[in-house]
Specification:
Elements (H helix, E strand, L loop, with lengths): L5 H18 L10 E3 L3 H11 L4 E12 L24 E13 L4 H15 L2 E2 L1 H9 L26 E5 L4 H11 L6 E11 L25 E6 L4 E3 L4 E6 L6 E6 L4 E6 L6 E4 L10 E10 L5 E13 L5 E2 L1 E5 L2 E7 L5 E2 L4 E6 L12 E5 L6 E2 L1 E6 L7 E8 L2 E2 L3 E3 L6 E4 L1 E3 L1
Parallel strand pairs: 1-2, 8-14, 15-27
Antiparallel strand pairs: 2-3, 3-6, 4-5, 5-6, 7-9, 9-12, 10-11, 10-13, 13-14, 16-17, 17-22, 18-21, 19-20, 19-23, 23-24, 23-27, 25-26
Helix pairs in contact: 1-3, 1-4
């Protein structure tokens, strides 16, 4: 594979062989043209400032795109943790060039273009020996270039794919937009593409030891499937009982709950019938509220997992008891501090408190309802502060604690009409 200098190497090789094309025996150019690889506006400015007659051929790399065929080759570079490097897949690129000729006399530009296009036509594939020869001889025709000594180590001649040159077609509108963006006067131009440049990072990777012993067992089973979580479709408090409904669950003996965001994964034993089993997700309040992934599993006596079901999301809600909040006035308004909620909030969680009026307001006024984010905190805490504006009304408000998008439950008196929210009440 090539390294980061491969793109420069391609341009240098093309520039080298274009120089040769104009200098070969029988060439009508008594004064060989200058072959450059600069932006067209720089070429035009140099010609204008020097006052020289135009006798120049310019290579301009105007676009670099991913090569579709190589885009998904090899394994991902990183493991699921986003840190462990497994492999170094190549970066496969297609290079899009504009070959522009500058001539100041009759037929000169056409002749320059003809020699250049014929050279590209006769060398549609740059073989390894051609690339090596060009890169090893760069110092002679291109003195003073700081990159010249390093391009030979680009690995361009040794990459798996050969370098291929393909003509491209740019419509009149595309060409017009391109030259307008370049802020240069149009000159006869031949667009072409070079494919494919394979640049591979030189990074240390992890290599697992070879497998010394394989144990393959075929165990005919009826696949277990979980279909539904009750109650509330999978949104429950920490100490609520969750019932999982499914099919062919008789072999299930544990449930796995995981929250990859915080690196939490734990299992709970269950006793299942053919169609359901129940468990309490967070009876000890050891894990924070939030969204977990639930998977039912069947294990043998040694604890090895024999079968895993599909996964369903389980939202474990925080519990906010009714309380009198500690309210402190400050320049921003009212700082409201609540306590005794469960389970504890974990540093890094997105937490907010919603306070809403439940008493009908006077005519022509609106019910107060506002959500405020938690003030910064560290560690695991059971007390949080929230900044509300000075318009926060005093008295009893309906409170809802929202942790990672999961809101605490509210109670409702359905015996009255209309139904009325009864708690939890936060008194401020």
């Amino acid at each position: 594979m090539s390294n980061e200098l491969a793109i420069s190497g391609v341009t240098a090789v093309l520039q080298y062989y274009l120089n040769n094309a104009y200098s070969e025996s029988g060439s009508p150019f008594t004064q060989p043209p200058t072959v450059s690889c600069l932006a067209p506006d720089l070429v035009q400015a140099a010609i204008t400032n020097n006052g020289d007659s135009e006798n120049q051929v310019n290579l301009f790399l105007h676009q670099v795109t991913h090569n579709a065929a190589w885009r998904n080759v090899e394994l991902p570079s990183l493991a699921a943790d986003g840190m462990t490097r497994l492999s170094s897949p190549p970066l496969a690129l297609d290079l899009h060039y504009l070959l522009t000729v500058y001539g100041s006399t009759y037929w000169q530009a056409e002749a320059l273009l003809g020699y250049a296009v014929m050279m590209l036509h006769e060398s549609p594939v740059l073989v390894r020996s051609d690339i090596s020869k060009a890169l090893s001889n760069l110092s002679t025709p291109f003195p003073g270039n700081l990159l010249t000594p390093y391009l030979g180590s680009s690995g361009l001649a040794d990459q798996i794919e050969l370098i291929k040159i393909t003509p491209e077609t740019l419509g009149r509108e595309e060409m017009a937009w391109l030259w307008t963006a370049l802020k240069a006067d149009y000159r006869p131009t031949f667009p072409f593409m070079v494919s494919v440049v394979l640049m591979q990072p030189q990074q240390q990777t992890n290599l697992a030891p070879p497998v010394l012993h394989r144990t393959v067992r075929a165990q005919p089973i009826q696949p277990s499937v979980i279909l539904e979580l009750k109650p509330n479709g999978g949104q429950v408090a920490s100490i609520d009982t969750v019932t999982v409904v499914g099919e062919f669950l008789s072999a299930i003996n544990q449930v796995s709950l995981s929250n990859p965001r915080y690196g939490i994964q734990f299992t709970l034993p269950v006793t299942a019938t053919g169609t359901s089993f129940s468990f309490v997700p967070n009876a000890t309040l050891a894990n924070p509220a939030g969204v977990y992934t639930l998977t039912a599993q069947s294990t043998d006596a040694s604890g090895a997992i024999l079968q895993s079901t599909n996964s369903l999301p389980l939202a474990i809600t925080p519990t906010l008891p009714s309380q009198v909040a500690n309210v402190t006035s400050n320049a921003a308004g009212q700082l409201v501090t609540i306590t005794t909620f469960s389970p504890n909030a974990l540093e890094g969680q997105e937490i907010s408190l919603a306070l809403s009026s439940t008493t009908p307001p006077p005519p022509l006024t609106q019910l107060f309802s506002m959500v405020a984010p938690a003030q910064p905190f560290t560690g695991s805490v059971a007390s949080l502060s929230f900044q509300f504006p000075s318009s926060l009304p005093s008295g009893q408000l309906l409170g809802r604690l929202i942790v990672d998008g999961v809101a605490s439950a509210v109670t409702v008196d359905w015996s009255v009409h209309p139904p009325k929210f009864t708690g939890p009440v936060v008194t401020v």
